[in-house]
Fold:
Amino acid sequence: MKVQPVRGTRDFYPDDMAFRNWLFERWRRASRRAGFVEVDGPELEPLELYTGKSGPEITEQLYWLEDKSRRKLALRPEFTPTLARMIAARQAALPGPIRWFNISRCFRYERAQKGRLREFFQWNVDLIGIAEEIADAECISMAVDAMKDVGLGPEDVQIRINDRRLLGALVRHLGVAEDRVPQVFAILDKRDKVPPETVGAMLAEAGLGTAGRQGLERMLGWQRLDDIEARERATPEVQAAADALQRLFGLLADYGIAEWCRFDIGIVRGLAYYTGPVWEVHDRQGELRAIFGGGRYDRLLADMGGKAVPACGFGCGDAVLGILLAERGLRPQAEPPAEFFVASATEQNFPEVLVVVRRLRGRNRPTQFDLKAGNLKRQMKKAADAGAQFVVIVTEEFARSRRVTLRDMRSGEQRDLALDELGV
Amino acid sequence: MKVQPVRGTRDFYPDDMAFRNWLFERWRRASRRAGFVEVDGPELEPLELYTGKSGPEITEQLYWLEDKSRRKLALRPEFTPTLARMIAARQAALPGPIRWFNISRCFRYERAQKGRLREFFQWNVDLIGIAEEIADAECISMAVDAMKDVGLGPEDVQIRINDRRLLGALVRHLGVAEDRVPQVFAILDKRDKVPPETVGAMLAEAGLGTAGRQGLERMLGWQRLDDIEARERATPEVQAAADALQRLFGLLADYGIAEWCRFDIGIVRGLAYYTGPVWEVHDRQGELRAIFGGGRYDRLLADMGGKAVPACGFGCGDAVLGILLAERGLRPQAEPPAEFFVASATEQNFPEVLVVVRRLRGRNRPTQFDLKAGNLKRQMKKAADAGAQFVVIVTEEFARSRRVTLRDMRSGEQRDLALDELGV
Structure:
């Protein structure tokens, strides 16, 4: 019987795995350049870690099970709750601020479609302990650094930045009751996925009258922070939130990444726990869903049983980014598996071939040889299959001379050299 | 509420994560030196991929769930069935032999104890398409290479090698019926974990009479291949299996690793699918369970719906190896998160500090700075917390001179240099 893989999961054959490693390496070095250290947690967590904290959408999408002791366990849908749990467990001992990153495999049961998988990878960056905008800017700068490192520029992608405090103040200013604000946020976050008339009906249900809906429509048309009108700025909390965003944009200019960033009052982020600046990276052509996003979540640690501490960060999945890189021709070729291939000039002679193989591998050079008995022609074919750059030919003289023939497979040049000269 | 992690899972704080990355890097480079390429598959697989193939012990230990479409899914307990599935799906297109490795997170519901976790990592190496002993030797050689690379020597660990064909022939020679052989293998595999009298009773139940049990006891006393006695060698299949093992040991000598290896008729391996040579790596002091092991599984691909093809490989978990390395003092220190720390000589001045930070990060040097307003003393304290090797001090002159002060935190030496000279 042939077993089919689970829908929404992926097999990583060598080319796909090479791309995954290439991408992870760029995520890692962008993190490390910024002085962040890698952490990880379990993929199996107690179900209660997610129920109520990650927002209803994620909770509905959980894969969960009961173990033999009837404990309810969930596969992690994201890393942040694990991070919050880990910090809460050692909060007193960890020196602040905490600069952590993580690359997680995550699981969400959702409709499998372009850029949406049920099993995917996510790069998480979290900066814990700083309430000021410099921390948000540090995270956004790292996101830009990683985009640059995979070959994308500000002509390819754009970071759209908002602040939930600003949007919250504006929505309350339109007359929405405090306890209905999360509902309005959820509607705004989904507004590109449902028809406009449905959005209107949903907003009405959340307590926005005709005037309120028109006001919201007007605000969603703002392109720059300066577009915020005097009648809104008259509200102190709107002005304070606009000032905070202005400081953030100033810092982004100091980081030299102003051209990557723009204000977008419509950015909300789906997760329930964000409390301040929120941002998303989108492809400029607007063909794909958000590549990634993040924001500030100053209450999450206290909600998880830790001490209240300001925090911000982001998560970047591999699926949409992978599609964008493939479309742009930025997905690199995999390295061939062997740099060297060692062959016998006569029939395969393992003891002598292995002397040369051991020498090359001992020098950290990827080396293969033919594992079947066969003549030189067969061995040269195998060397070509492996993409080897060099073939080392062991002749009958080798036992006496300890000399081999080195052929460069690109130029076809051959030369004779001593075993000790190989792989230096 | 504080949520506790699931028993048998681990949180990887920075030190533990650094060790995990260090170990994975050594697994990867041992694989790549031998010309193997990395692959991976899903962690969520259809339950039926495991039922019946991995042996009853693993099937009992599966974590599994029903998704919303009532499909039964399992968390992978090992990688080999996924590998077999992936090869069966593309068998015609893949050039042989296939040299693949993988580093998997795996899940088994078993009693959490020293060296046994419910969530662990495993390095898998598989060589598909070669029936001869050179393939088994190639795998064992890679295992030795990785042991060397983590700092272990033949005085620390030993590879104990057997062949199931030899043990099977011997057990049949003692009068055990063909269909009872797997049962006897399972008893032998568990014999160190149950009292001797229980082992005797279990063997009797499997059809071994008193003479048979005494014969088995005698065979388990053999230390070398040469100890196999003439009365057993008279059976052609015993002699053929002994010859195959002899060829394998000859190749291991050609690889230069004879001193790491010895014959051990008692090695069985728990997994049901092994068909030929089997081997385990043990610590010499015998204090820990097997560090890792592998063998030949020539029937697995056909059982998975593929074409029959010879195959061998091994899996190495991170838990027991991690304990051994810690006991031997071979667990490395983590690198500090920052190489450079950029400070303002006066109150924190982000725009100027960021000029220097961008320069250093742009040169791929891990760089932090103080994210809070504060004086130089506070900033120097943060630099020490980060373990920074160098502090770059930005003075009031910087705006004009573009020069900074570089302090080496180890020697205490300071020198003045131009921004352009930093991080080269």
